[in-house]
Amino acid sequence: MAEPLVATYSIVGCDLEARQWGVAVQSKFLAVGSVVPWAEPEVGAVATQAYANPRYGPDGLALLREGLSAGEVVERLTAADDGRDDRQLGVVDASGASAAWTGSGCLDWAGNRTGECYSAQGNILVSGKTVDALAETFEASSGRPLAERLLEALAAAQAAGGDSRGQQSAALLVVERDGGYAALSDTLIDLRIDDHDRPIEELARVYELHQQLFGRTPERFWFPIEGELRAEVEERLGRLGYDSLEEWASVENLEERVNGSAAIDPVVLETLRKASS
Question: Vertex 30, ends 92 and 174: CA angle to 5°?
């Protein structure tokens, strides 16, 4: 069976301070998130595309786990693959080193750029400006959350021309050790838009929903639940038929933003006010 032709552009990146690794991708290909992005915390991240070899994902992470550098992983994977001329690959390792491969058989425009903590690559693009936009946007956003940097890079790449065949699907994957749901998962973000006219915009919209439900405002910015605010919270919860903030938050999928009853996350308070108005 032939490998899928994942004509696309993607960016693999990491934030060493936050200890996060991730991939963002867009393509004129159904459900691109099921093929291209792979990542493991404290190990690295991989994007496999063009006439994609899906085994590059798990095999690449296994090699990174053994301690090979990004460059060594790219060399090892492509050397063992007779179809390498039609492949494209981007890798970032645990130290932030990056490497990429664009086979000579990839369809124009095809190419890649690498830098500290990122690898940007694309094929069947309008021009090289798409990959330039990926790289330059990521470089210019240092210090911001990794997920936002990856999403902004995708949007900039689309504005610069994108996939010459158009748009269909997009995905965002970010991992962090114990950074996922209930601190029991390493998957911080795993969002996929499988079929949409404007998948990057839809991915950004879903990301905002994800942040509302599963993000967390630093507790120094929470409001103490006392005095008039305590009375307001209790009254609004009663209006909705709940005895406690925790009970209501669990129904609204906001439990990750609640920690006792001494203080309240501003996002939770805003949602409670809207729900009880």
Answer: 30
Domain ranges, residue 21: 5-214
Structure tokens at 135: 């790289």
Query: Are both 270 and 198 inside the same structural domain?
Result: no
For residue 77, the 8-state DSSP code is: H
What are the b/e assignments for 12-22, b being 16+ CB within 10 Å?
bbbbeeeebbb
Range 87-105 average pLDDT: 98
254 burial via Cβ count (<10 Å: 0-12, 13-18, 19+): buried
Please indicate, yes or no, whether residues 43 and 101 belong to a single structural domain of this protein: yes
- pLDDT tens digit sequence for 110-167: 999 999 999 999 999 999 999 999 999 999 999 999 999 999 999 999 999 988 888 9
What Cα–Cα distance (Å) separates residue 27 from each residue in 8, 10, 39, 177, 198?
A: 4, 9, 19, 28, 11
User: What's the total number of domains in the chain?
Assistant: 2
Tell how many helices (H) and how many strands (E) occur in the chain: 8, 13
Q: 134-152 as b/e, with b when 16 or more CB fall inside 10 Å?
A: bbbbbbebeeebbbebbbb
- CA–CA gap between residue 94 and residue 252 (Å, rounded): 36
Are the CB atoms for 74 and 112 separated by under 8 Å? no
Specify whether 171 is located in the same domain as 44: yes
Q: Report d(CA 189, CA 174) in Å as an integer.
A: 5
CB-CB contact of 48 with 54 (8 Å): yes
My answer on whether 196 and 226 are in the same domain is: no
